[in-house]
């Protein structure tokens, strides 16, 4: 006989990047971070800033605090409020269920009061006007008035699957109007090093474009090589 699971399971040790590691990602565009990961790390593009970012500026960079809710249930994400540290981004897996909301303005207001930097979920939310008034950056899959349950089971602090990526507590979440990117905890220093190189390259490219660049040198070189055939 299958035994009923605990209503909630909470990970005892919640790892977290250093303050220097966290700061290294502040202000970094998500595209730069993806490039620093050689094209990896982006969550599915159906997870977007609420309302497309038209009424609420959505940008955040902070350590993930995960909540595994399961479809139509929000108990775990409410439980996660107790474990938020200032600057955390709560990442809640709702099993990509779209039949009801994964939270509303009350929950998101409590996240902000607890010091969260943002909230990411693979489900719709509710109370759009209230969320805009709260002002916490939020990424979700849409809006619905439908209410969820709050009965569990759920888990806080453990790895979750969301947006075709695995996210663990302590991974870095970088999110802006383009979407959401996760940097695994074990790769933080590596990606930070690559990120500095990407920033430098992007600045140089922007300067060349501002100065009138029309065709990049590498395109000119390719077109002049024997790798390209011109035909009538």
Computed over alpha carbons, the radius of gyration is 20 Å
Principal-axis shape equals elongated
Q: Give me the CATH fold name.
A: Glucose Oxidase, domain 1
Count of helices?
7
Task: Give the number of domains.
Answer: 1
Helix residue percentage? 25-40%
* CATH second-level architecture: 3-Layer(bba) Sandwich
What kind of assembly state do the chains in view correspond to? single chain
Strand element count: 11
Q: Give the low-pLDDT segments.
A: none
**Structural class by helix and strand composition:** alpha/beta
CATH class: Alpha Beta
Distance between the termini: 74 Å
InterPro entries: RraA/RraA-like (IPR005493), RraA/RraA-like_sf (IPR036704)
GO molecular function, one term: metal ion binding
Organism: Aliiruegeria lutimaris
Protein name: Putative 4-hydroxy-4-methyl-2-oxoglutarate aldolase
3D architecture notes:
- By secondary structure, the protein is an alpha/beta fold.
- It is built from 7 helices and 11 strands.
- Strands 1, 2, 3, 4, 5, 6, 7, 10 and 11 form a 9-stranded mixed β-sheet that branches. It has a two-stranded antiparallel sheet with strand order 8-9.
- Helix 2 packs across helix 6 and helix 4 packs parallel to helix 5.
- It is elongated and about 70 Å long.
SSE blueprint and pairings:
Layout: E1 8-10, H1 19-25, H2 30-36, E2 48-49, E3 60-68, H3 75-80, E4 89-93, H4 105-113, E5 118-121, H5 128-134, E6 138-140, E7 154-156, E8 160-162, E9 165-167, E10 172-176, E11 179-183, H6 188-210, H7 217-223
Parallel strand pairs: 1-7, 3-4, 4-5, 5-6
Antiparallel strand pairs: 2-6, 3-7, 3-10, 8-9, 10-11
Helix pairs in contact: 2-6, 4-5
Cofactor: a divalent metal cation; Mg(2+)
Protein name: Putative 4-hydroxy-4-methyl-2-oxoglutarate aldolase
Binding site for Mg(2+): 127
């Amino acid at each position: 006989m299958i035994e009923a699971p605990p209503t909630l399971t909470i990970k005892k040790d919640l790892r977290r990047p250093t303050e220097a590691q966290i700061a290294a990602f502040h202000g970094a565009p998500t595209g730069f971070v993806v490039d620093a990961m050689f094209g990896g790390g982006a969550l599915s593009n159906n997870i977007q800033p609420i309302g497309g970012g038209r009424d609420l500026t959505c940008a955040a960079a902070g350590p993930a605090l995960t909540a595994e809710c399961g479809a139509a249930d929000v108990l775990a994400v409410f439980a996660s409020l107790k474990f938020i540290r200032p600057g955390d981004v709560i990442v809640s897996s709702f099993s990509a269920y779209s039949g009801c909301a994964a939270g509303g303005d009350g929950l998101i207001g409590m996240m902000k009061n607890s010091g969260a930097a943002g909230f990411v979920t693979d489900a719709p939310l509710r109370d759009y006007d209230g969320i805009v008034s709260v002002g916490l950056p939020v990424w979700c899959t849409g809006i619905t008035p439908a209410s969820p349950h709050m009965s569990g089971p759920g888990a806080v602090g453990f790895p979750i699957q969301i947006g075709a990526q695995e996210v663990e507590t302590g991974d870095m979440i970088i999110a802006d109007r383009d979407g959401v990117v996760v940097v695994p905890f074990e790769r933080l220093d590596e990606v930070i090093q690559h990120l500095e190189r990407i920033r430098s390259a992007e600045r140089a490219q922007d300067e060349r474009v501002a100065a009138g660049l029309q065709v990049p040198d590498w395109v000119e070189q390719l077109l002049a090589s024997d790798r390209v055939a011109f035909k009538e």
